[in-house]
Write a structure and sequence with these properties.
nine-stranded mixed sheet; alpha+beta; four-stranded antiparallel sheet
Length: about 325
């Protein structure tokens, strides 16, 4: 069988253009981070790495970057704690793994991957998920590891207003390109490997000032994360409750499988029709089995990057 041209796409959250003038240096920091991560996953795919491994690699790197709300630099709950969620799915087998509400797992996507590999369950949460991660020998940290001063100040600012906001704040970034009070802070990756297999991975720190115990769309297979070799791989970012209500990621695959929709048509219908109909905002990245890409969002911007084959990576923030 002839090798397929591999494709990688990543996202680091969606939102609206900052009310202040975008600082070119601050925007460049995001472009540089996205470029570095896309290039790493692209190189791995070109060497034959599986789509599942490549998406996990990209998301691990996103978790390690404090510019994004996942892993180190995750946002705070109302009680000034961290609760992180992640999910992975293998399009070749429909195997999936997810964790929710963890506070000690160094890299949440690795725990989600371990759940997938174990195979007994799909979603583990809270103390049980952390015990599983320890049993699997994954790196554990104290909750303060995820904290940054920028996130803490963001919590205080938002908590004083009594709101819950779906955004993330980049550490040491005084004027990030996207308005921090109107930004959706999830990270994710989708890939098509040289063998023609698809995979998706997503990770998040959730919503600033969220109620303890809140779980969004990220770890819910079919809502924020989904992959099926017959159709597409999808990773979402946005108002999680709305993505759950429309089963956003799976709906795209269903529209393709049962209605014959193209990837572009299916993602457009979900992002620009189904979600707005119930007040849902955000975006998603998707790649289909033919290597077609969709990076759709109904906000004014979404941190994103992609690469096809050995072509130079492309990154973008605004439309």
């Amino acid at each position: 069988m002839k090798n397929v041209t591999p494709v990688i796409a990543i996202h680091g959250g969606a939102g609206t253009i900052s009310a202040s003038t975008t600082n070119p240096e601050q925007a460049q920091a995001y472009h540089d981070a996205l470029q570095t991560i896309v290039r790493a996953a692209q190189a791995a795919l070109l060497k034959g790495m599986s789509a599942l491994d490549a998406t996990c690699l990209a998301v691990e790197m996103l978790e390690d970057c404090p510019l994004f709300n996942a892993g180190y630099g995750a946002v705070f709950t109302h009680e000034e704690t961290h609760e992180l969620d992640a999910a992975v799915m293998d399009g070749a087998t429909l195997a999936a793994g997810a964790i929710a509400g963890v506070s000690h797992v160094r890299r949440p996507v690795r725990a989600a991957r371990a759940v997938l590999e174990d195979g007994a369950h799909v979603l583990l949460a809270g103390a049980g998920a952390e015990a599983f991660a320890r049993d699997r020998g994954l790196e554990m940290v104290e909750p303060f590891f995820f904290s940054t001063d920028a996130r803490r100040q963001q919590l205080y600012r938002v908590r004083d207003t009594g709101r819950v906001v779906t955004d993330h704040e980049g550490a040491a970034m005084t004027k990030p390109p996207l308005d921090e009070d109107k930004k959706f802070g999830t990270v994710g990756a989708v890939a098509l490997d040289i063998h023609g297999h698809l995979a998706a991975a997503t990770s998040t720190g959730g919503m600033t000032n969220k109620r303890v115990g809140r779980v969004g769309d990220t770890p819910l297979i079919g809502s924020g994360t989904y992959a099926d070799d017959r159709t597409a791989a999808i990773s979402c970012t946005g108002s999680g409750e709305m993505f759950i209500r429309v089963a956003a990621a799976h709906d795209i695959c269903a529209r393709m499988a049962y209605g014959g929709a193209t990837l572009a048509a299916a993602t457009h219908a979900v992002v620009h029709q189904s979600l707005p109909a119930i007040g849902g905002t955000g975006g998603l990245i998707a790649v289909d089995r033919h290597g077609n890409l969709s990076l759709a969002f109904n906000t004014e911007g979404m941190y994103r990057g992609h690469a096809r084959g050995d072509e130079a990576p492309v990154t973008a923030i605004f439309a």
